[in-house]
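Mods, move this if it's the wrong board.
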Amino acid sequence: AAWPVRLLMVETLSNLAVGFSVALSPAVLFYAFAGCVVGTLVGVLPGIGPLAGISLLLPATFGLDATKAIVMLAGIYYGAMYGGSTTSILMRIPGEAASVMTCIDGYAMARKGRAGAALAIAAVGSYVAGTLSVVALMFLAPPLAEFALRFGPPEYFALLLLGLLVLAYMSAGSMLKALAMAALGLLLGMIGIDQMTGYFRFAYGVVELGDGIGVVPVAVGLFGLAEILATAGLPTPPAVIKPKLRELLPSRREWRESAWPIGRGTVLGFLIGIIPGSAHIISSFVSYAVERKISKHPEEFGHGAVAGVAGPESANNSATSGAFVPMLALGVPSGPIPAVMLAAMMVHGVSPGPLLIKNQPELFWGFIASMYVGNVVLLILNLPLVGIFVNLLRVPYPVLYPSILMFCTLGVYAVNGSVVDVWIMLAMGALGYVLRKLDFETAPIVLGVILAPMIEMALRQSLAMSDGQYSIFVARPISATLLAVGLVLVLLSLKPLITKSLDWRARLAMAEKREELP
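Not the wrong board. Structure tokens:
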């Protein structure tokens, strides 16, 4: 039984050697480096994100051969995952949607003078997760891709609904509050043109809302602008941080506290990445919720927990490799970014699918090897820049905060060239400020806005398949199992309320007995 496994290992390693011979050629190495640099810049700038970056730079690859083009676009993809953490940690502005969860504890670490440590942990976690997920991509692509194909609309709906329930269950506060915020996000996400009927809904005559409310203005408003408003309302502004050289690197305790979250984030991100949808975004939310739930000190989350940075940053980078599994093995994109990558491959005459590995091994294994190289390049790029980025915190607040506001406004406006997006950002900033005062978490709103179109489409497609019968969700084994897990989570969240109710009734009965005694 060991012989087939050994042969598979030898064959994989020999193929990888061929891939490295392609990836380490000067021309391919140059385009991998260029993609990583551009991706990092795309991630740092609020509002751009990997999808916009890849779409804008796709025409620039038309003169290249297929290998160089795909390597460069992949570099932009996971480079943006790296870069998005920088402004999240330093300014509480998500560089892109996958960095929303990093804002919470990354910025809190920065306020404690541990910005350098947070940036270093984010970079190393991203490197480890990216490298390990590429190893998994090599060995597990075909079987995992076949499993992902079993997900139809009912399974997809059940999975997304379970995702919302998991995040609400694992939130620090009330599950009801978290679900209320997620429901608000879902309502906001339904604004715009109905995908199935073309009906223009909830837009009140604002044509720019036809495509719906964008994730970028919502995230930047709820996090970046709300932070500015909250800080501006303080009687005295926070002290300007002047980090020392020795504080740029994480301590031993911080490395220890980040090791397991990086491992868990890698596994979670890769598995979630295979499932269709905005995997790199969802995985970071799930990872943060898991880390907070299993932590021995959950009260530290939101106040600078190292695991709150290490887990989500590892998960969103690992998910990028997971998303390539169905794309490379079966030619099925698992989200909008892999779809653009798939289009780029087809433009260059490559037919993705099961025969890609057999017909064009140099392209496939060169691409895999370039991901190893790209992760090393990103680590080399990002760690030396930590000292430069941290110096932003030396800027006095009367100068820094107006600059951040201008930065947010330009970034949000640049996405669609729409003033409406700027107004949405301002409205979300005001809403975020009020919700923070009322002790509501704002992250579920962002997740709701992201998931709303996907949940609605999956629900309506499922009902169209079953002629309006809701029984389709329990008739199919995978969706029924996912819904059953969600129901268990709801019941578990109700357990404290039931226990309190029983205790109250018992105390009431005891009080009545005392009154009856002579």
